[in-house]
Amino acid sequence: MNYRYPPRYGPEWGSGGIYGLRFHNGTLYFTLAFEGEAHFITEDSHKIYEFELVGPRPTSGGDTYNAVEVVDEYIYFGGWVHAPAKYRGKGEGKATIDFSNKYSHVHEYDTENQEVRLVWKESIHHPSEWAGEVSDIIYNPYTDELLLAREDGHTNLGVYSLSRNGRIRLLNDKPSAKGCQMHDLAFFGIGKNYRKGLEEIHALDMITERWEVFPLGESLDGGKYIQPHLGGNGVSVNNRVFAFVRGGVFVGNPHNDEQFAFVRLFDFYTFYAPFRVNALPIGGGILVGFNAHHDAYYRPRTQEEMIYHRFTNTIPGPSVLVYFAPPMVKIVGVFGARITSIEKVDGKILVATNTTPNVGALDATPFDTGNKDIFVLPEKILQEKPPAVSFSVPLAFPSEGKRMGAGVFGGIPLDGYDNARLIIKASRDNRLKVYEYDLALPLRDADVEEFDIKKGRNVIDLRTFSGIVSFELESEDFSGVARIELW
């Protein structure tokens, strides 16, 4: 198989990536987006499907959320596709896509016969709006149906049930990007991802099809969380749901008297997030990526876009691959702009990466602009010492017309490191709180220790702390920078 995919034809914004990595019944599947190619690889074959069952070529898109599920000998893959793609060129400095031929879709791949079947497609045939993309697929063994999460779009959002012969039913009309199964329930994150992010969690009883609604609780460090955009798939471990969002993870099981609490992780005043990447159950734990540059404004044209441009293009650190084995949280890999998909194959971990984010507004191109590759790691990285890593974080940030500062930031896992320190370059005297917590279940509130910060360079030795640490300044410092070093 190829391990590197340079920029090629695929009209969209910025770059898509390698999505939906899944090894099943001797076949490795993934979708190459925005090129609109589904790949199926075995020991002696490599089949490429270009979504021609959806509509005429040239096609583009495919999947950008890792919507894939396996049932029996079948691989079910979903997402969205332009068929055919219609690029609107750079007239007066504006370039965009006509969405008239944009379809949401679910396909079935028979690994025994190496055949693709279109199960379902849907389009509203509008030039600037589209029907909700399929961003997650969960199999319901009781009804033998596929549960579809749909949030990215303008109409037909929510949770749907799709039979394997193509009959679709609406179960919940609230927009949902991701979900997971726990016991006989399917939990779904509810909210518009590019606005407020996750707002509440709904649970579907997969037998009775009744819903329950659960609110989001407080953070372990007592600080607020902002814009908790729902990222990778939710995963169930230790009879709890883990919902990965910008700034950390919500963990809980209300049926076990544990409301959804927020565990702060890699929370900076930027769009650093576990976004557009799946969470992989492995070794009884969870492997997930936190991405430095997954979605961004490329060329701001208004003052509001300038704020979001800075928010989405500030890179505080590399993308990291993180292993959750409660109470431990451990960094196991360091990568560039973003990780798009993760899978386990024959004692190896496949990590799909990309150099370029999705972009938006009026900066579409007729080709994908990123360099994508598949990075192969041994499974033993989960048991080895973590790699050295550092983060350089602005201590405050202008966002959405207001200033964010003097809030809690960080959430840095120290497990496995011999040395760790925080360097604060302050423009004023201040006071710092360091919160210490871990992922022991049930979750416990953080402990806190305070330090005086003087104008200039301050070094805090973090070797006296364990688990996870987050930080809070008493007063905002819009010229200050924090550098966190782990080795």
TrEMBL record:
SUPFAM superfamilies: Soluble quinoprotein glucose dehydrogenase, YWTD domain. InterPro entries: Quinoprot_gluc/sorb_DH_b-prop, UCP016666. Pfam families: DUF2139. This is DUF2139 domain-containing protein. It comes from Pyrococcus furiosus (strain ATCC 43587 / DSM 3638 / JCM 8422 / Vc1).
